[in-house]
Design the sequence.
């Protein structure tokens, strides 16, 4: 099986010797096109490091929060079964694909990055599910039952998005390992779970604990 050409070309431009492999995520029945872990075992040149920092290929990793969210939905399909779902900042599409496999009626993978949407398409095909795609969250109508969010709060400037999620969906489910115990009147923590980014980047232990937060729009003040 060969990775889609646009994804291969994008990765080649960053790391000429890198390759994508279709890999099943640990603790799931989901497969994604991911960067081969062997490509991470060498030292990068200064130019490669610059390119990676300028345009990180985040779409070819399954980050810890996305993995936790996928496992959560597989174990609790009632969260998405028969519902309209949007995966915000979809990246590889792992949460969107998990929602589709758990029985969601309609799933939109939303990401600003065209390469991320290309990865979502490829990964959806790999898992035999159908998704729709959006490059602009704010162009979407207020029509979703649930907004899924994973690994978006790594930049604290994104915290105001917590309010915006509820402008397009009746509920939001947010997985995050970067902001510890964020305070928001509408969000409550459901759980703390352990996972690592895949392939494993040997991130600090603190980033392997993922918190799941839930908000319901009906809780908004009148």
Sequence:
């Amino acid at each position: 099986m060969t990775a889609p050409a646009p994804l291969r070309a994008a990765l080649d431009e960053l790391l000429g010797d890198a390759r994508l492999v279709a890999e099943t995520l640990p603790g799931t029945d989901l497969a994604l096109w991911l960067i081969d872990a062997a490509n991470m075992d060498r030292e990068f040149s200064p130019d490669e490091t610059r390119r990676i920092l300028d345009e990180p290929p985040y779409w070819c990793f399954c980050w810890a929060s996305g993995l936790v969210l996928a496992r959560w939905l597989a174990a609790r399909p009632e969260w998405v079964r028969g519902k309209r779902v949007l995966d915000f900042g979809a990246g590889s599409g792992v949460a969107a694909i998990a929602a589709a496999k758990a029985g969601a009626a309609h799933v939109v993978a939303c990401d600003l990055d065209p390469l991320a949407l290309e990865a979502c398409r490829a990964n959806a095909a790999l898992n035999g599910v159908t998704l729709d795609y959006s490059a602009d969250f704010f162009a979407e109508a207020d029509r979703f039952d649930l907004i899924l969010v994973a690994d978006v709060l790594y930049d604290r400037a994104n915290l105001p998005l917590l309010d915006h999620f509820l402008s397009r969906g009746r509920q939001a489910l947010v997985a995050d390992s970067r902001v510890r115990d964020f305070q928001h009147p509408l969000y409550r923590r459901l759980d703390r779970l352990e996972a690592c980014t895949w392939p494993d980047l040997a991130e600090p232990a603190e980033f392997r604990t993922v918190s799941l937060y839930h908000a319901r729009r009906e809780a908004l003040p009148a």
About this structure: The mean pLDDT is 90. The CA atoms of residues 142 and 168 lie 4 Å apart. DSSP finds six helices and nine strands in the chain.
